[in-house]
């Protein structure tokens, strides 16, 4: 259920669980969160986000807004201007895609 629903169970699911099941779920969720924080070169890695491995570590993205300078993990800075396109590391783009700053360009 942790992998399907996330760290918070929907009320209708939680209502059907007994107290030991809820405690087990909470402990498992905490252990999984601690593990995900510890992997990925100490940057963390959300294993529950996408169950399929990426085909490429880099993706092509289009900037939807004037964002300004964005520093990559390797220290390189790029300027994210509206309608500019970039080939960037997937792991660093995903938060900006979720925020609506970047758009993944699919071929």
Automatic annotation (TrEMBL):
<dbReference type="GO" id="GO:0000811">
    <property type="term" value="C:GINS complex"/>
</dbReference>
<comment type="function">
    <text>Required for correct functioning of the GINS complex, a complex that plays an essential role in the initiation of DNA replication, and progression of DNA replication forks. GINS complex seems to bind preferentially to single-stranded DNA.</text>
</comment>
<feature type="domain" description="DNA replication complex GINS protein PSF1 C-terminal">
    <location>
        <begin position="55"/>
        <end position="106"/>
    </location>
</feature>
<comment type="subunit">
    <text>Component of the GINS complex.</text>
</comment>
<dbReference type="GO" id="GO:1902983">
    <property type="term" value="P:DNA strand elongation involved in mitotic DNA replication"/>
</dbReference>
<dbReference type="InterPro" id="IPR005339">
    <property type="entry name" value="GINS_Psf1"/>
</dbReference>
<keyword id="KW-0539">Nucleus</keyword>
<comment type="similarity">
    <text>Belongs to the GINS1/PSF1 family.</text>
</comment>
<dbReference type="InterPro" id="IPR056783">
    <property type="entry name" value="PSF1_C"/>
</dbReference>
<protein>
    <recommendedName>
        <fullName>DNA replication complex GINS protein PSF1</fullName>
    </recommendedName>
</protein>
<dbReference type="Pfam" id="PF24997">
    <property type="entry name" value="PSF1_C"/>
</dbReference>
<dbReference type="InterPro" id="IPR036224">
    <property type="entry name" value="GINS_bundle-like_dom_sf"/>
</dbReference>
<keyword id="KW-0235">DNA replication</keyword>
């Amino acid at each position: 259920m942790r992998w399907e629903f996330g760290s918070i169970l929907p009320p209708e699911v939680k209502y059907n669980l007994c107290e030991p099941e809820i405690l087990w779920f909470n402990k498992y969720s905490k252990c999984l969160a601690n593990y995900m924080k510890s992997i990925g070169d100490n940057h963390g890695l959300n294993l529950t986000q996408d169950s399929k491995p990426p085909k490429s570590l880099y993706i092509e993205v289009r900037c939807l807004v004037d964002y300004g300078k964005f520093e990559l993990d390797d220290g390189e800075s790029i300027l994210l201007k509206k309608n500019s396109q970039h080939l960037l590391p997937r792991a660093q783009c995903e938060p900006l895609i979720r925020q609506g700053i970047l758009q993944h360009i699919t071929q």
